[in-house]
Design brief:
Strand order of the largest sheet of chain B: 1-4
Number of strands of chain B: 4
CATH architecture of chain A: 3-Layer(aba) Sandwich
Distance between the termini of chain B: 39 Å
CATH class of chain B: Mainly Alpha
Helix content of chain B: over 70%
Structural class of chain B: mainly alpha
Strand content of chain B: under 5%
CATH class of chain A: Alpha Beta
Order of helices and strands of chain A: EEEHEEHEHHHHEHEHEEHH
Number of domains of chain A: 1
Oligomer: heterodimer
Number of helices of chain A: 10
Number of strands of chain A: 10
Largest sheet of chain B: 2 strands, antiparallel
Helix content of chain A: 25-40%
CATH superfamily of chain A: P-loop containing nucleotide triphosphate hydrolases
Distance between the termini of chain A: 36 Å
Radius of gyration of chain B: 19 Å
Chain lengths: ~240, ~300
Amino acid sequence: MEPVLELKNVSAGYGRIQVLRDISLKAFPGEIVCMIGANGAGKSTTLMTICNVVTAARGDILYRGNRINGIKFSKLPPMGLCQVPEGRRIFPRLTVQENLELGAFFRKDSTRIQEDLDMVFDFFPILRERANQKGGTLSGGEQQMLAIGRALMSRPRVLLLDEPSLGLAPLLVGQIFNKITEINRQEGTTILLVEQNANVALKVSRRGYVLETGTVVMEDDVKNLLQNPDIRKAYLGE
Amino acid sequence: MDYFLQQLINGLTLGGIYALIALGYTMVYGIIQLINFAHGEFFAAGGYMGVILLSYLAASGAGPYVCLAGALILTMGYCAVLAMAVEKVAYKPLRHSSRLSVLISALGMSIFLQNGLMLTQGVYDKAYPTQMTQGSFQVAGLYISYMQVIIVAVTGILLVALNALVFKTRIGKAMRASAQDKIMSGLVGIDSDRIISLTFAIGAGLAAAAGIMVGFYYGSVHYGMGFVPGIKAFAAAVLGGIGNVTGAMIGGALIGIIEVFAAGYLSSEYKDVFAFVILIAVLYFRPTGIMGENVDDTRV
């Protein structure tokens, strides 16, 4: 099977500071694949480089077989590539409903947009209750739901999720990850998940990459990663 | 009491004009955090283009109100295009530079546009065909000229239209999103370059309308006319809370009223001073302005 998203020897950084060195990774259609690593390993930078918010200095980024290096990032959601960035970045002074509508900004099929809005509201009922509230007034967990809901409004083929567990209580983390697997199963959305919380990430994923100081140091099926003593020691707290 | 009400009407008329200019400052600031010091020049360019079009349309035999409407719409379009060109040439290449560089570029653009207007239109005042809207009527002892009615009506329509655009339409939603987080708005598919360009166009269109109004109000235009009203409108934008659309409207009205009252009750010599006294006082005591921070529901 052809990967839907592939990075080939990608290097990138900010100014003269190099963050990513020679990153190669693949995401196959319909799978959840995760990237785990410590704070500052370059996980978020990898996602930002895929979307060309950070420019790749070297290497190829392939989406559905086409090279997408250098494409303006506002062109990617219409192509089906969508990111929920670190820190959620919801629009704080727009209402919940407006935030969701913006997720479908590029779409013209207004009846389908309405259906998808209902779908997101069914998926996260709390968002329906808060529809007319300003995004900035939501709690952390609700904001995470809003950010994921907003991404779903673009009907993504590939969803890049950056640290959905960040700052959430363990119970909420479990809820959010249940929803993530549900999206993957129901919609067949490919998900590239970036997480510091390796425990939950490895539980929901099929394959995983381990990132250390900007380089992929290991890649395998998660069942092998979970049995690897080094991983258990460094990332699973044993 | 009559004198007070008369001055209030005059003040609101002038305030509406300041509000139209102030919106351009505040919207551009809201979206790229730039004080566009060339903004007053769009107002001046509008004043000139307005009088040129008016005489051209009048010569073609159209009625006065047709002339006025035609000149207004065409002038707003002209200034919108001019502002998009200015943004592309002077600001867009500096998008990732320091804010100071863009500010200096704005000052340079202001000098360039002002001198361009002087070279092409001459150094002398250009008279407006004020006879077009001559006449006034009396209500309860107050004199109201037709021109004042036109100014207030046009200003009101434009302000309502702008409010609807920003707060009710899809493109307005995109503008507000871009003002809040440019990268994230790009990640949902909003092309921020286009939104920035559009913001400049709208701001300049409103300033152009104000230019025509001022031409009728004072009877003539001058190549350097953009400077003082530009700074006063900037003071209005700061007073209202920079970045806030509703604030700019309120700030504009207040500056206009205060200026007219100062001229009427104190001395017309000092009328220009008050806008700047307010600017300094606001910056000193409440830098966020009337609508800033605490009531930021209407911020773009």
